[in-house]
Design a protein that fits this description.
Chain lengths: ~350, ~400, ~170, ~160
């Protein structure tokens, strides 16, 4: 009994469980491998190839990713001349840390007063907006803003990383990243605000628990958010900062070994974070479920979104920077404004 | 600077980037780019990383030895490279080529052209980030390479065409393969259109990029699809029909715009035209010999029986080992996959050419690319490079 | 000369066309994702059998050879050289130089050279690449070392491009 | 076609007093002194020969001379069937030829290559630098006949 109690007490404590286990570190690490495996496998299917295969024939080459990761871990980290070694080694870590951080504040499920394995923490994570507990690392009623605020530090870290490597291609990549981050952050914020106006709240839990999925309530905001998510996580066709045929690898040009893995992981984690927010905001999150199954439902929906956005690699090329900027400011930005008006009008008429 | 209806003030920020030769988007080529902001002010092109000294080796080898050498520079278009050289040599030798061999030359040349265009498309696709186009280009090319393998005995280093004819004959099995391959390619082109040509992303990257007007194309001496993408109606197959082209019905696709998308469209339509030519060749090919009588008579009868009657293969008479053409010079042109290919052979009556000049289409693209890069965006470097279908070994020779 | 026809493509499409273009591209991607057309070969497990007349590595029939030197004369890569062996000239070949053009096979007046279907041999140093007449005289057509290898034949297919069917030989 | 394409060109050139040597239906050659090269080139361009296919330098060591051949043609429908060779000579002592870059832009690559391969300077071309060869190839001109390539014989004494 003691061990079971310990498990419930320590591991299932939402502040531990959410950041470390379910949407957090462990799940994200597995998802990361799965996503890259899926990306390679899906691209291979479209491109008349087999993809990863020989590392584990029965699993469809899944272990290839483990092998790749191991290889990267053991390969030498080359620090170029003329860089500050501390900054050089620190920035990839910061990049990953900054992209992981929002996972602690994204609600993935609710905790009912009784019946769930998390129910003992019902009162500790009580959300007065919906009258239920929330499965989240750190509960605030303003989690929508907090997530976006933390995630918007991520591009700054990329720019810092590029600057600290003292490479011309990296600098060009950083300039591109800074242009892009300005344009997609605005879109993300505006579609989030339109949802906030519509649901009269800054709390994702209330949006989910309202019972109306956001994609029906405000489809324009969903489209805007989805495109901004693809730009923000540097998926095709907006792989502009890391454009490999133009800029070698953009900000990550000089990195090798483990540090390179970290630079790559950042954008995938960022993608997952945006996908989780998208799921909560537009796709009903965990809605009829609660507790652990609810959390599973949320991350599965988010994973499918991530899979879809990596699948776009096999369909698209890469836009030019000015085209991406023009697209987002000239076409998507008005869409975001329209979504805001839609949110305003619907929110005014539909008082909960 | 006006771009897409928006006025941009460009703050002068100058810098230099050294693209290549070890760069994912350069090939065996160094482009020294002077940037002002995102705009390329000047581009210095430094080819020569895969120089094979074809012209110098040409002066030191017998005529027959040069067949594998001249097809190496553009290995993916080897039949056309081979054909151009043989045409020049035949002009000096004054040999007539039998009808069937002419058709077979056109057959192999068109397969080579399709393969070359698919390769070029793949490179263009990966340059602008479209990895599916890259894999499809190479995958579809494999089908044509299989046919060439069945016909000539080698996948890409065909060495198929020899003075006076070709080395192997078409068999019913190859005709069957070709028919299936034509049907496959037609189907696949539809998917190509969906995922690549009509993809708004690809359109955005290629339209209005690297615009070359008709006058510029003529002044810079562009060749092949690059020229036809700029509205110049010129094709060596029409201007100076070689092989069986004077008897075949095909069109020359010409587009007016002169940008990367027009060049890509020209290539796609040329694939369709090549498929048409292949169909006609299969239908119309006459029976007969595939080597000029002058050489055919020199083959020992026992060998003839074994190879020509048994396996539909031509064996070479000993004459080929070091033939001495009469004194003279000849210039030949063929329309290779990337454009017009010119050989200038000067013979002094010995077994080796006195001078061999080989002008490949990519060689002519060097000047075009240098000029087109001026004023383009840095991100357009790769789309200009890819849409010109520049192939460094072919330019370096 | 037929008529000159200069075409133009349509520029500046309506947003509707752009959206439908995107949907078509994604649709084509999904179509291939659901129904893949694989044309790659799982090479060490499967190996492709080559068509007849494939210009692979070359072997010599020493007893047929008359030592006429034509093969060495026609060799474009200087790979084939003549060596005097017991008073008779025989060709040697340097596979480090051979370009597999098979001109020597075609020009040999007595058919003493033959192209084998072998193209994937491995050597541990460069000296082994030079075959003296004795070594050149031996047959290359060895059975593959690993019996697991499935021999497949590439067949051109209208739908899939290339299909691999087991080679029944 | 009743009239040979070269005849049309021959007639046009005759009016402008340029001697043309007809070599077949679609080929012809014009040999001029290098002092008249630019002038002739301008006339050819006026007629409609709008691009240069090749610039070839040929070394004749027995005469201590270089021949430079420009193969000129057109993208015009009729004229494109003709290729004219514009030939000129220059001596070893003064391997300088006026550049035709002002007439045809398409000679740029060919003139640069001829410069690095044969050491013929084209006066008036601003880009007289190496193109294909590495920068340290100074003073060595590979396409001159004096640059020998090692060749091998057909026989080896002992098989190794």
């Amino acid at each position: 009994m003691n061990i079971l109690f310990d498990i419930r007490y320590y591991i299932l404590y939402p502040s531990f469980f959410a950041p470390i286990i379910l949407p957090g570190l462990i799940f994200t690490a597995i998802l990361l491998l799965t996503t890259i495996w899926f990306e390679r496998k899906a691209a291979a299917r479209v491109q008349m190839r087999v993809g990863p295969y020989y590392a584990s024939k029965r699993l469809g080459g899944y272990l290839q990713l483990v092998a790749d990761a191991l290889k990267f871990v053991f390969s030498e980290v080359i620090v170029p001349d003329g860089v500050n070694p501390t900054l050089f080694a620190l920035t990839p870590v910061l990049v990953v840390a900054m992209s992981f951080l929002p996972l602690a504040v994204i609600p993935v499920s609710v905790i009912p007063p009784s019946g769930s394995i998390f129910s003992i923490y019902f009162y500790d994570f009580y959300d007065p907006n919906v009258g239920l507990g929330v499965l989240v690392g750190l509960f605030t009623q303003y989690n929508m803003l907090l997530i976006l605020a933390i995630e918007s530090i991520y591009p700054a870290m990329i720019i810092l990383m590029a600057w600290s490597t003292n490479n011309r291609f990296a600098i060009v990549g950083a300039v591109r990243e800074s242009y892009l981050s300005v344009s997609y952050d605005v879109l993300l914020l505006m579609s989030t605000i339109s949802m906030a106006l519509e649901y009269h709240t800054l709390d994702l839990v209330k949006i989910v628990q309202s019972g109306v999925p956001g994609i029906l309530a405000n489809p324009l905001a969903a489209v805007t958010f989805f495109i901004a998510m693809i730009i923000g996580s540097a998926r095709f066709p907006f792989d502009i900062a890391e454009a490999d045929t133009e800029l070698v690898l953009g900000p990550a040009t000089e990195y090798s070994g483990l540090l390179f893995v970290l630079t790559m992981a950042g954008s995938y984690v960022g993608n997952f974070v945006y996908a989780l927010v998208f799921t909560d905001m537009f796709l009903w999150g965990w809605y009829p479920l609660s507790g652990f199954p609810g959390a599973l439902l949320t991350v599965i929906k988010a994973s499918i979104l991530v899979f879809f956005s990596v699948f776009l690699r096999s369909v698209y090329g890469r836009y030019r920077l000015d085209q991406a900027l023009r697209g987002s400011w000239k076409y998507i930005f008005p869409l975001a404004i329209a979504s805001m008006f839609l949110g305003l009008v619907v929110g005014y008429l539909w008082i909960q | 600077m006006k771009s897409g209806g928006m006025e941009l003030d460009i703050v002068p920020v100058s810098g230099e980037l050294n693209v290549g030769p070890q760069h994912p988007g350069s090939g065996h080529l160094r482009i020294f780019v002077k940037l002002n902001g995102d705009i390329i002010e000047d581009a210095e092109i430094d080819p020569g990383y895969v120089h094979r000294a074809v012209e110098k080796l040409g002066e030191n080898r017998n005529y027959i030895h040069l067949i594998p050498l001249v097809e190496r520079p553009a290995i993916l278009d080897s039949v056309n490279m081979n054909l151009g050289y043989i045409l020049a040599v035949e002009k000096i030798l004054n040999v007539d080529v039998p009808e069937r061999a002419q058709y077979l030359r056109s057959f192999a040349a068109e397969i080579s052209r399709i393969a070359s265009h698919l390769y070029g498309m793949g490179i263009l696709a990966i340059f602008i980030g479209h990895s599916t186009g890259f894999m499809w280009g190479f995958g579809d090319r494999e089908v044509w390479v299989q046919i060439l393998e069945a016909l000539t005995g080698a996948r890409i280093t065909n060495s198929y065409i020899i003075p006076g004819g070709v080395r192997r004959d078409l068999t019913p099995a190859i005709i069957e393969m070709t028919k299936k391959a034509i049907a496959f390619q037609r189907k696949k082109i539809k998917d190509w259109e969906r995922i690549f040509l009509n993809n708004p992303n690809i359109k955005a990257r290629l339209q209005d990029v690297g615009v070359m007007t008709r006058e510029q194309a003529i002044e810079w001496g562009a060749a092949g699809p690059n020229l036809r993408g700029s509205g110049v109606y010129y094709d060596a197959r029409k201007s100076e029909p070689y092989g069986a082209y004077s008897k075949l019905d095909f069109e020359i696709p010409v587009y007016k715009e002169g940008d990367g998308y027009a060049r890509t469209l020209v290539r796609f339509e040329e694939i369709e035209q090549s498929l048409r030519i292949l169909e006609q060749v299969i239908k119309d090919i006459p029976e007969g010999q595939i080597l000029s009588d002058r050489f055919f008579k020199q083959i020992p009868p026992t060998r003839l029986k074994k190879w020509w009657e048994g396996q539909r293969r031509i064996v070479m008479p000993g004459y080929y080992a070091s033939f001495r053409p009469p004194k003279g010079e000849a210039i030949s042109r063929v329309e290779a996959g990337r454009g017009e290919l010119v050989y200038y052979v000067v013979s002094d009556g010995s077994a080796k050419p006195y001078r061999l000049r080989m002008i490949t289409p990519s060689y002519r693209s060097i000047y075009v690319m240098k000029n087109l890069l001026k004023g383009a965006r840095y991100a357009d470097l790769v789309s200009i490079y890819g849409s010109l279908d520049y192939f460094p070994p072919e330019a370096d020779r | 000369m037929d008529s000159v026809k200069i075409k133009e493509y349509k520029k500046g499409e309506s947003p509707f066309n752009v959206v439908s273009g995107h949907l078509q591209a994604v649709g084509a991607g999904i179509k291939y994702f659901v129904k893949p057309q694989r044309i790659t070969l799982k090479y060490p497990d499967e190996s492709m059998s080559l068509p007849t007349g494939y210009r692979g590595m070359i072997r010599l029939y020493k007893d047929v050879c008359i030592g006429c030197t034509l093969c060495a004369m026609v060799c474009p890569a200087d790979a084939m050289k003549m060596v005097t062996d017991q008073g008779k000239k025989f060709p040697t070949i340097n596979y480090g130089r051979c370009v597999f053009c098979a001109f020597c096979v075609d020009i040999c007046p007595v058919d003493a050279l033959k192209e084998t279907g072998v193209h994937d041999a491995a050597f541990s140093n460069r000296r082994e690449l030079i075959f003296n007449p004795e070594k050149f005289d031996q047959d290359f057509d060895q059975p593959p070392l690993r019996p697991v290898v499935r021999k497949v034949k590439a067949v051109i297919d209208e739908d899939k491009g290339i299909k691999y069917v087991p080679d029944t030989e | 076609m009743s009239e040979k394409p070269i005849d049309v060109v021959a007639k046009l050139l005759q009016e402008r007093k340029i001697p043309l040597k007809v070599e077949g239906d679609t080929r012809g050659s014009i040999e001029v002194d290098k002092s008249k090269l630019v002038e002739t080139a301008r006339i050819l361009k006026e007629i409609g020969f709008d691009h240069v296919k090749t610039v070839t330098g040929i070394d004749y060591p027995d005469q201590s001379k270089f021949q430079i051949v420009y193969h000129v043609s057109s993208f015009d429908l009729q004229l494109s069937r003709v290729i004219l060779a514009l030939k000129t000579w220059t001596s070893y002592k003064e391997p300088v030829v006026p550049s035709l870059l002002s007439v045809w832009g398409s000679v740029w690559t060919g003139e640069r290559e001829t410069y690095e391969m044969l050491g013929i300077t084209f006066e008036g071309n601003p880009d007289m630098r190496r193109l294909f060869l590495p920068e340290d190839f100074e003073g060595v001109y590979p396409l001159r006949k004096s640059f020998k390539v090692k060749t091998e014989g057909l026989f080896v004494d002992k098989s190794s």
